[in-house]
Amino acid sequence: MKKIHEMLAHEKKMKKIHEMLAHNRTRLSREFDFFGDILFLDKCLEGSMASARCKTLEGFKAVIEKHESATFVFKQDTDTLVDWRVILPRMLEEKMSRQKKEVSQKKDVSKEV
Among 11, 20, 38, 49, whose CB has the most other CB atoms within 10 angstroms? Predict the structure, then answer.
């Protein structure tokens, strides 16, 4: 009798999980339709390094294919910590350096003409 109750409880729990997943999938689909920035990776299974690689590669592949004009791509997992106080100034410094170089090159070209 105890086994039957456990099985029924498990079945009820699984049904609830599937309903919740369907609800979240619907919400995510609506958000994707509006913004176009969610990537569904049904082919990447959870729980292994292979799946982690799959998600990373598929993510970057989607950026290349669908958002080729993106100027910044960031990927973070739950086991990653990014100190934005350090990284953001570095990124801005690099961008400013590139812009200065471009302006300098344009000046050089205009002097030649």
Answer: 38
- Cβ pair 43, 20 in contact under 8 A: no
Q: What is the pLDDT of residue 101?
A: 85
H or E segment and range at residue 17:
helix 2-35
Summarised one tens digit per residue, pLDDT across range 25-40 is 888 888 888 887 777 7
In sequence order, what are the residues at sequence separation of 6 or more whose Cβ sits closer than 8 angstroms to the Cβ of residue 65? none
Give the separation between CA 36 and CA 105, rounded to whole angstroms.
37
Collect all residues with Cβ–Cβ distance below 8 Å to 70 and sequence separation of at least 6.
Answer: 63
What would the pLDDT profile of 79-104 be if each residue is shown by its tens digit? 788 888 998 899 889 888 888 888 88
Q: What is the pTM of this model?
A: 0.47
Asked whether the CA dihedral 27, 30, 34, 36 is positive or negative, the reply is: positive
